[in-house]
Amino acid sequence: MELRRFFVSDSDIDGDSITVRGDEFRHMTKVLRLKKGFKAIVCANDGKERHCVINKIENDFATLTVERVETVDRKSASLTLFCGVLKNQNLDLVVRKAVELGVDVIVPFVSANTAETRFNEERASRIALESAKQCGAVYLSKIEQVCGFDEMLERFPDYSTVVFAYEEERKTALKQVDFQGDRIALVVGSEGGFKREERDRAEAQGAKIVTLGRRILRAETADIVACALTLDALGELDYD
Ligand code: SAM
User: Looking at CB atoms within 10 Å, which of 43, 88, 161, 177 has the fewest?
Assistant: First the structure.
């Protein structure tokens, strides 16, 4: 049977001893009913899988002993997806697929044409955790709270390359982007798309404006396709 996977922060690791608490403890002991002596994989967002054995289960935490450590995912670049907030929980699908693909950070935003402005960060974080466990991720994608378009633009200088998918772009394809550095950001609009003025401001702030082809993709399709194309260009879809 596939070993179960849990995510902790590095402060929960003390040498060969790991403490699992909170929701992950409840999932381990109440949902999965793992017992003392059971094996599990523990990840702490450092590209390592720690193969452990449960050696103590208390009321609200468990301690595990590390038996071996494997470095399995040497990331060469990190990808942040800035995705327009979507209606009818379509962002749930985007979160799930972005985690499976290996997106590191997901930041929902609201722009002029965004119809839905509500976003449940806690729910999205739970979906991200569930998806990471299911796909055997070694890094746990971070979900941030919603930000405005202006605030998003202000963050562009934090990235070495920003790619902005604009539905009216006719020239530059994503594969033509010369990705610089290892902190990449990708921006995809909500159902209502972007105003020309938003596109121009993003470009002025250093974003590379790209097309995703002749057809107008649904926002959730564009999110997923753009993430896959970008991660592939960064070599993040290679196996090793
Ligand atoms: N309201 C827009 C329209 O009808 O033209 C459609 C917006 S589309 C549903 C949502 C987002 O997906 C866009 O803002 C863009 O970021 C991305 N997108 C969809 N199709 C695209 C394409 N062919 N090229 C570039 N971006 C695209």
Answer: 88
Residues 89-128 pLDDT 10s: 899 999 999 999 999 999 999 999 999 999 999 999 999 9
- Residues 69-76: what's their mean pLDDT? 87
- Give the pLDDT confidence of 3-24 residue by residue, as tens digits: 999 999 999 999 999 999 999 9
User: CA-CA distance, 38 to 53, in Å (whole number)?
Assistant: 6
Is residue 240 in a domain? no
Segment 203-217, tens digit of pLDDT = 999 999 999 999 999
Q: By alpha-carbon position, which residue is closest to atom 12 of ligand 1?
A: 219
Secondary structure in 3-state letters for 133-171: HHHCCCCCCEECCCEEHHHHHHHHHHCCEEEEECCCCCC
Give dist(CA 223, CA 200) in Å, integer: 20
Q: How far is the CA of 220 from the centre of ligand 1 (A)?
A: 10
In ligand 1, which atom is closest to the CA atom of 187? Answer: 16
3-state secondary structure of 16: coil
The CATH number of the domain holding residue 220 is 3.40.1280.10
Domain count, the chain: 2
Asked whether 82 and 104 are in contact (CB, 8 A), the reply is no
* CA-CA-CA-CA torsion sign (35, 36, 37, 42): positive
Whether ligand 1 lies within 6 angstroms of the CB of 218 is answered as yes
Q: Are residues 63 and 33 in the same domain?
A: yes
Query: Does residue 173's CB lie within 6 angstroms of at least one atom of ligand 1?
Result: no
User: Whole domain around residue 58: which residue ranges?
Assistant: 4-71
